User: Fold these one by one.
Assistant:
Number 1:
Amino acid sequence: ELTPMNELIQLHVDIGLMLISKGGHASRDMMEDIFASAVSHINMALPKSTGSATTVEFTLSQHIVFAKINLKAGQKAVNGKSNFSLAEVHLKAGILFLPKNSWADQYDLTLQLSDEYANVLFVQRNLDELHSHVDIILKNAKCIGDKIKAHELLISALTLKGSTPEAMDHAKTVLDSLGFPFPPSINSETVTGVVNSLSSTTVSFTPDYLRAFPLMTEKIPLQAMKIMSAVQMHVSFSSPTTFQMLACQMMQLTIKHGLCVESAEAFANFGYCLMSLTRNYDAGHRMGKLSLVILERFEATKRLPKIYFLVYGFLSVWKEPIQATIEGLQFAVNIGLVEGDYKNAIFNGVSMNRQMLIAGCQLSEIRDRLLRLCGDMMYDKSKKSFFSIFNPTLGDLYSVISLTGETEDEVYSIFGISREENEKMLLDRFVATDNAPFVQILYYHRLVESFWFRNYETAMECCEKYEIYTQTRNLLRVTDIWKAFFWGLSSLILSRRKKQEELFAKGEELLLGMQYWAKDGSKWNAENKALLLEAEYNFAKGDSVKAKTAYEQSIQSAHVHKFIHEEALAYELFGIFCVEEGDLYKGNELLEKARELYEQWGAKKKANLIFPL
């Protein structure tokens, strides 16, 4: 206690330097602990703020060495343990140790520290400090290439804050400076033409062809690909046509200049556009598989969560068993958490839970996952500060517990937002951002609850409103599956009750769409749905023989393809058919089977309402 502070700090520095000089003789197992201890001692000499003097005077070389040591420690914290909090401490220390005029005299070290620190701030969601820190980088970096990482992070931060238009404007400005201006006007006809042209160009691409494809080496196209990648996913919410054109431009750059790691995203997004615009499920799915080949070629583990989100959340579900896509999404969640890509880990988690619901996974498991996921997205409950897709995910949770029959009290006590308030927040965000998915998911949630509880007229209304925003987007979503299925069933059931031809026609239209998906897309996912629609179609027509056969086939298909909830639904509707046809005994027997299956699924409230009709 009697030792002067400057002497005490000098002692810590001397200990730190001694540990570094002697640590090279230690065993490999001990070296990491010794290095960590050395850095801790040295950082006792940290100045209180950037530009201020340290308590102990250091030589220029010591300033540089201490900055480099902290840079290395920060990188080890990220790469070895994904400890971004520790990395933030070390990288900030490294910046504070930099000598005056370091942007001029120690440019490479200063840029590297600044870029690493900006990335950690982004991962930690310290967006306000990130914004001011990025401004420093953009002001001091010597060339556009050195500014690209800062531009990427700024664009991503703006989208996370809900400022997608500002992010897009910033991206356009950067692309203009790179010599890749964005088209001044875009319409669906232009995009469709470019998509069709690229589809013809890429039809012969194979995995082996891409494994040998030349790599992109020119700096400017590489930089343009990074900027397009930073904004593309987010702009899909607000401007699908812009998203589609960006996907096409990234494909054109790849074909002309060679492959880069962002090309994996280009292929996946192009496949998504191709599938959405043409309903060519095979072509879109093939592009997704090619994107995984590119990802593998670059061994780009850090990119995996983003690419898997596109492939398994948007493409594979239209061709592969939906249950199989869940494994890919879970893997992406795990990698995202390890790599510090929390944003894409969350995106994958949201998609996974929606696909688990449609796949008929246990509702209790989905509920528990959604509770944890919403908790991960909650920044500040008192200020209602959440991750950008918190409200849609909370709506997913409320939909699930509407089926289980649990009260909403637990959810409200944790998050402080009721179902009604959550819906209002979604509507407010739609008004503020014009992002159609915010209101689209709201009507999807209402559809799920109204259909399962036989409120078919409400279900129809929800489908019609959902469809309005689907038409403006022209992008496929996994939620479209139940929308089409429930809309078709509701139309046919109501057409039979009300004797309305227009409802029957709508049901027939949706039956044909489901049959097309079963034939050209995924028989596994669509066959039982198409057969159940066919049963209701024939029931509405008055063809009881064909209706009975289709009900039985739908039950069998749902059972084989492991859709327990839709097997229950087929038993339920077949039971109603039998009751209305006068066979009360068989009808009740089928309804009891439906009740048992709903219980197994975990939909206790639904099971309890099977009787009476």
Note: The chain has a mean pLDDT of 89.
Number 2:
Amino acid sequence: MGRNSPLSPRNSAFLNQQQHPSTDLNQTNNNTGLSIRHSPSNQGKGGSTGTGAGTSSRKRVSFFMTRGSSHKRKHFTRLSLVILLVTFVITSCFFMLGLHFKQLLFLNFGEHFNDAHNFWNMIDIEDNLQDMGISKSIAFKSDGIVEDDKNSGDGSSSSTTVEKKRRVDKKKFHSARTIYDECRGIHWNEITITLPQTSIPSKKLRHGENTEIIGDGLQSRIKEIVSHVKLYTPLMESEDSSNPTVLVIPNALQPSHYNDYDRSKMMNQHENRKFDITMTTHMGVGKYTRFRILVQRWNGPVSVAVIIRSLEELDEFHTFVSNNVQSLNHVIFHYYMEFAPGLRMAYPQNRLRNLALTHIQTDYFMVNDVDILTSPLNTHDLLRDTITSHVEIHEKLNNDTFFALPMFDLHVMIPDDELIFNHPSFPETKSDAFKMNATGIISQHLATRHPRGHRAINYTKWFSILSSDDASSVSYAIQHENKFEPYVIGSKLVRHNGGKIPSFYPFYRGHGFDKYSWFAELEFAGFKLEVLRDFFTFHAKHESSYGDKNATKKLFATNTFCSRGFMKEIVKKYGKQDNELWDDWMKNVYKG
């Protein structure tokens, strides 16, 4: 039989349907849910009558099907939107709840921590520790830090892994921020550790007695500091110089807190904080002897930022403090710790200066460097008396004036092991300075190599005012010139510039621009300069801290590039400049 034969199965079925139409009259449309009743004329293409009834019927069916499908699509679209909305709301709630839980568990740093980016910064630190095989879950809470230390990097089984939980302290918090140094392309992860200020309140100590109690209190504080530093040591030691972590511990150590006798003596001596003055300075390893001499000559409050670049240096510094407790009773130490080896030649003096200056506890301050000694002896007491007894001095300080001190180079090399605070080679009085300058033993600091650094002092005028009985000449005004960088006295209570003292530009490191950029900003901000009559400083000669000349030139070139950022900050703070000082900066920074 052929495919289209009348007796073929296909045609037989068709014929059977034509003979029994009732078997397929009631059909349900599965797409629309409509029940459609077909007549025999619906079969085939228009039926046998040729009237088009079959075609008309199909149009009606198509209309109902289209209408039903459109309605269902709209219903499905609405339903889908509702489901998506509900899903989004539920997911958001769980996300916010989870984020809130994480913040409560890990990162409640307190009011000093309000940058959301810092949250992820700290999580990255923990992840880096885990990548090194040390799982340290650090729970940051307002009431302290809980450290989980699980050493799983040695391949030992979980049954032999030592797990310990210890509460480091109850009243401290860690905060973090990311700082971008665009002139070096470095992202700094700066973590600040704030420790409670403790002392030994139990027993009154008499001078020279119970030194073992003093030692116990100091050593407990040192152990506390080390325990915090070691939380980050594996991370810091593994980093390169492109994304280093820095630890900052302000007010870390104050020896007077562990000696009741000297603390009460110091409080009585400086109880009138209104006229008290703190020296601010900074130092690294190898400067400890000179720092001790500086403190002894100053004989007053000192705020010093110490850079430490390894655990060995930390131990060396703590040994120095422990061995010189009595000499350092007036000192507050702030720690600045960076371990990245690629930055060892770039000393961050401006970050250290800002750290020391920010945390002074008196109304007045002196900006100084660790190699710069002050005269006369007991400089603090004499300066404080001058501020107290001369109303015009503290009025000018509190308004818009900084007071500069002349600086001399002492042309005598004294080894550190021979240094004492009252060495016979030191100029002790203004009369000594006058005589030693005349004989060439001392001279204006860097008068030949860097004359603009201090010549605005007007040394001729300073030497001419010898009579301390002339109250009208206790100071005299001077004009700033570019690259002027004296050591000065200032006030936290200044009213000028909205009550704000500019910070040192923090991205200068090593040689060049670091200090005189600050005095340039003082000039741009409209501050004034005067010179005090009866005080001066001198530089105790030492070997260069910057290495060979090529290293110094490289540091200077980098700082020259960094100066572009400094100049942008000046315009941002004080507006576009049109003066000789600005033109000089433009020539020096953009000369290439």
Note: The two ends are 101 Å apart (CA to CA).
Number 3:
Amino acid sequence: MTSDWMAEDEIPSTKPNRPYKLWAMAMLVIGLLLGVLIMTIVQPSNPDLHTPSTALIEECRKRFSTTEQQEACITGLDLTKEKDTSNDSPVDEDKSSTTITGTGNDATVDKQRDFNIVALGAAQTEGIGIKDRTKAYPNLLSPSAVNLAHGSMGPNMHAICFDTSFEDMEIPDIIVLEDWLHYEEGLALLASRIRQRFPNALILFIEDAPPFFYRKNADNAKGFVNFAQWYEANQDELKVANNNNDDDDDAAAIAQIKAKLTAEADSIGGDWFIPPHPNADDAIEDIMTSVGAVHTENITDNVGGVLWKMLPPLDTGYETLAANVEYYWQERSFSFRNLNEAGHAKVANELLDIIDVARATKGVPIDNGPLGSDSCHIWHYTGDGIPEDRDNMMLVEYRPNTHYYVLELDGSYGWMNVTNPLAEAVPLYLSYLTDDEEGYLPPEAVVEIQDSNGVSLGSTILNTLFEPAPTHGVIRTVAVSQPIPPGQEIKVMFTVTNTTATEDNFRLSGYLFSVTAPNEWYFAPYDKPNHR
């Protein structure tokens, strides 16, 4: 007789009793369920992928904020397309929008993006002219943005000190370059080094064209006036806003400027224009081609870079100025050279639109590692990196309002010990201040290099004078030695030769070892010899 829960042909030769059969079936079901669960946990979502490496796991955990994103990155799900995290990203929760005070039609910044952004450039990118420089446009693009821009330093510094600039930094997804008029000062080298080390980073070339750059024909010695001169000449008529930061006064002043521009549109002076820079334009085109960059009208997903004009030209110059002058209006400053806070918000919004197209799909950033090409110690902007082993050289903040630092020679003699940490023999370079129109007249100095045994490796005269003197001085950087072997410590001794000619002290801004630095180059707080 067969069991009522088993078919005739399923009866085993030795029949177990009913309780044992129920227990066996239960164990079988539980075993199957456990197997499925274990396979779900252990097996990668994509069976074609090999076991993820420790490096990939660490990178994914560092790059993404949620567990779901990290697991997707590790197992290979959607590595090239970032999931919409507007509801679960801590950045988006806290940064739904940012309101910026100041003049302008739109002073609200869209949601920041979850990208690592590094900004290199000049005054606009640094945020010169606004009270809170954390509101400069790079910082409005992403909460993790690093703004390394500084005045008119130019691209040479970051090109020659590339490894040092990106030391201990998160791998950048996007790098901003706002230095198009300084193209002769290392821009091509900087762009090529960015592409060599960070092959899939988006490079944003910013072409800055503030109202200050615009010219209008005039009957004077120069044959033209710039926009700031035009404003000054019409100041009384335009009823300059007072200095109590009244938004209504600002809006009224801007409205008058726009009306004046429109009224003069067909005047005998002709239209406003920007002097052409054909050499700069050609050089930028070559640089763009070398890194896979395109113009804004040709943007596609995952292009290598984009050239964006900060003040996009309209049909006529006066229309362009009328549409954008409000973003450069600053109380107590009528040069129309630098963006105000609303201008930075406008720039940030337009760049975010570009980023959304150029990086519609977001991959894991790649870092090919340091190029091993430099070790730079420039304390001019931070006061950091001075040699510990030194004598008669004191750290001085010589421009307290701008926080510029130098090692000042205390008397006629001083020295410091430094070491070449690179893997190849390279010269030692010294960066020091020259004279300026504000009255700083540094003495000439002789620098002698000795090895650890006291044997002289040569000497060099450091010329501290320019003819004519630049307005705010420059920082000259020169090679002062033959190539120093890897790991060798040297003693750098300074002797002032004309102490009776000036009361000022010799000022050192930094030193560096570099594979690619030219024998002599410049960077500056403000002016450079070829941009006075």
Note: The first strand starts at residue 98 and ends at 99.
